[in-house]
Amino acid sequence: MTALLSVEGLGISFGGLKAVNDVSFTVQPGEITSVIGPNGAGKTTLFNMISGVYQPGQGRVLLGGEDVTGMAPHLLARRGMSRTFQNLQIFQSMTVLENAIAGFHLSERGPVLADLFALPSSRRRAAEAQAGARDLLARVGLERAAEREAGNLSYGALKRLEIARALALSPRILLLDEPAAGCNAVETEEIDHLIAEVARSGVAILLVEHDMKMVMRISNHIVVLDHGEKIAEGDPAAVSRNPAVIAAYLGTEAANADG
């Protein structure tokens, strides 16, 4: 199977400190690849390089065989890469439906004059965006909350809304940065099922998540970082038995729990 995303020798330094060094892996269509590691391992920095937020200092990123290294996020979005962030990027005072519609801005954009004078083409695009947004809200279980103000939703519902908005771009690959962070057990399970459903539809998932139970349950492939370097890679069973992973990540978690 040809990889949808290929990360080849990616690295970056800040003030002479190697934040990520020579990391390589691939992501397949319809599969969930998780990046794990202790705090400060370089997971979000890696995401930022892949998604165009940071310009890598070394290596390259291939999307569908095209070199997209350092390409701006909006250009990557047009090529099928969508992303969520650790911190919610929700318009709290807008309705749930309006937030979902905002996700269609790249695909619904048309001539300025058509929008200015509300020409039929503009109204048609707006109607299509609203219909698409309602479909996405149904997909993430928020159709009944469409007219509610987003700021009144639970934290888990806001996380699902953010995923819905990312899906509005019809991505080939979806990057999820800690989608279950701050969620309770029920909310985490809802997000777990949603991510698995998206992957089954053929979308590749690249996931950063600290909830190890969730990672082990839904991942097809796991990449482990420690101090900016890849120390292990494989399926959940192999990674969970790897001594380097146990020492660097699981051991750290256990030590914290004992403390």
UniProtKB/TrEMBL annotation:
Q: Which keywords does this Swiss-Prot/TrEMBL entry list?
A: ATP-binding, Nucleotide-binding, Transport
* Listed Gene3D superfamilies: P-loop containing nucleotide triphosphate hydrolases (3.40.50.300)
Q: Which GO terms describe its molecular function?
A: ATP binding
The answer on whether this UniProt entry bears the keyword Electron transport reads no
Q: Where is the ABC transporter domain?
A: 5-252
Which SMART domains does this one have? AAA (SM00382)
Checking Pfam families in the record gives: ABC_tran, BCA_ABC_TP_C
Q: Where are the transmembrane segments?
A: none
Name of this protein: ABC transporter ATP-binding protein
The organism named in the record is Paracoccus fontiphilus
